[in-house]
Amino acid sequence: MEPVNENKLDEIYAWIDQITFSRPKKNISRDFSDGVFMAELLKRYYPKHVDVHNYVPGNSIAKKIDNWNILNRKVLSKIDMKLGKDVINQLANSQLGIIEKVLIDVRAKILKDCNVDRDSLYSDYEENGRGKNAKPTLNPEEIANKTVPRHTFIRLKQELQERNETINALHQKISHLESLIKLKDQRIVDLTAQVTRPMAHT
Hints:
By secondary structure, the chain is an all-alpha fold. It has two domains: about 110 residues, Actin-binding Protein, T-fimbrin, domain 1 (Orthogonal Bundle), CATH 1.10.418.10; about 55 residues. About 65% of the residues lie in helices and about 0% in strands. It is built from nine helices and no strands. The longest helix has about 50 residues. One of its GO terms (molecular function) is microtubule binding.
């Protein structure tokens, strides 16, 4: 599988970070490895397809694969997101980078099914009586706690980088000025010593 674009990864992490799951989030690969988090996530957008009670948290690879197989058969196949056996094994084994790629595809599917992009989704929610006309597959909490659009994120990231560069430059100037002050102080001490020596001889 090809490497994932860094901007897409940032969006996925921000999206998942704002969602409340049944247990605390610690490591995304391990958190999603038993399929329970994915079931809870899909329940928000496809409530008719998902019964979260079908998915029991488990530590064994066999249990994790079983959960993913149920999710694959009962939910993912119905929304044209069926996963291959190899991907399920990788997810169950918490292989790094796999869940992110799956989540990118899932999120794209959700947005497609909603028939709106992120920006219009949020504006519809804000303009149409705070979500009264929103589609049932959307959770108002998800819309209200919206992910920052990519162009905004990039702009803020660039501004932060520029500010950090300015701060670093100021720190360098301060260090330079401090060095100059030390040199001047030492010069004053040396000059004072030179002035006092002749006076001592007289």
